[in-house]
Amino acid sequence: MAGVSPLHAQTVTPARNTSSSQLPTLGDGSDMTLSAERRLGDRIARGIYRDPDYIDDPVLTEYVQNIWKPLMAAARLRGDLSPELQERFAWEIMLGKDRTVNAFAMPGGYFGLHLGLIAVVTSRDELASVLGHELSHVTQRHIARLMTRQSQQTPWMIGAMVLGALAASKSPDAGSALIVGGQAMAAQNQLNFSREMEREADRVGFGVMTQAGFEAQGFVTMFDKLQQASRLNDNGAYPYLRSHPLTTERIADMQARQPLGASSAINATLTAEHAMAASRASVLANAGMDALRSVIAEADSTRLAQQPAAKRAGVLYGAALAATQLRDFKQAQAYLTRLRTAVESDAPATRLTDLLAVEIALAANQVPQAAQLMAALSATAKQRPELMLAASVAARSGQRALASGAAQNLQVWVTDHPTDAGAWQQLATLYAALGQTLRAIRAEAETQVARLDYAAGVDRLRAAQDLILEGKVGANGGVDHIEASIIDTRKREVELRLKEQTLDKGVN
Length: 508
Known about the structure:
By secondary structure, this protein is mostly helical. 65% of the residues lie in helices and 3% in strands. The protein has helices at 34-49, 58-78, 83-88, 115-120, 124-139, 142-149, 155-168, 172-178, 184-191, 195-211, 217-231, 240-243, 248-256, 272-285, 289-300, 309-325, 329-342, 347-363, 367-375, 384-397, 400-416, 421-433, 437-450, 454-470, 481-506; strands spanning 92-96, 103-106, 110-114. It has a three-stranded mixed β-sheet, with helices on both faces. α1 (34-49) packs parallel to α7 and α10 packs parallel to α13 (248-256). The radius of gyration is 24 Å and the shape is globular. The protein starts with 33 loop residues before the first helix and ends with a helix. Mean pLDDT is 85; it is low at 1-27 and 172-191.
């Protein structure tokens, strides 16, 4: 989800010959087909989309995607990710507004990533090590093998149990609502891979991340963080340790794979861009007033001047965002001014600062200023964070020309990214503001389809058809026949998906 590379997108370098064929594998050994696993993953993902903790933050989503895409490319290059597997699975990372340190693979190529994990990693390399590990759980079909072991359970019961275990990691009461009877332990086991699977995911993940151009030390420094947490008798902030327990064998294996003389300094690759992304994740995951004030206090500390430049940028960014959350816009602007000075020679960090400036202006209801700031971002205007923010500004501005331009840009985006629910939702708002009722309703339907709620999608498309029959939509009260034809076609397609989804539920 990026364009020109202020985000330093990694390139896949074939120079490192780390083909997965050189590594011992456990074999597939699974009776679950790719289609069955994907359908199960869709069911679980649909539940996560409805979770209040699910978050589509364009800035963080893009940051994660710029790490994820090189990993996917490397997995393809190494032969870990077959064309069939890539086509059948979703390969989607779902962010959770949760301050605990966790990431997990789910059936069908869906992945969960808590903002708490983004907040604690100190480099892109550390985050790449986690994502590479989780990616490898899926490419090596570990989940399907676990499902095969639970063959006495129906797939949808397993799906409910997985959702229950995820909910229980945040709230035992919420989890018990989804896990019936004595199945809680079975659900937790469903998320826990064997030691052999963990070691295999380490080995394959290590090869993937280094092939993608990330530094090998990221794996070791991430293990250092987890090991320190485990020594402190994890108090619940690191659920990742429970589903991916560290062993001395795993740690020794990763240390042995480091190049001779490699540095193990955790801050070796800290950048202002990463520090700012981590601070954003921390603030969005800890929305309580005391937590926000703590972030601000760090920016006001006299010790901040002694910190490395990248660290200072992260602290100031977090303070500006925290002050915005507290609706202290004067203070937010003061931190923003300090931040601009701190990152003036760093293009990626400057871009994140410019985006934050628009967010602050919008939050303060200074819409004309937000529009002016948005116009200055023309160099990166076609990237997702800019497109989404421009849509918000245009919808608030009341200016038809702004709304029309933002809608055109978003329409191009969703044509290339048809499963982007957030973009469709913004597009629906813009079309409604422009009085283009049919297009607005279809965009609402596409939002639901992208979230795998086909029943809601059909309902919206049916509502559009009802308006068409009444002949009350379109220019001068007429009907846009091209749009009407698209709606008819999409309704048939979504009804077919809904029928398949309903049949799947019936196999219980």
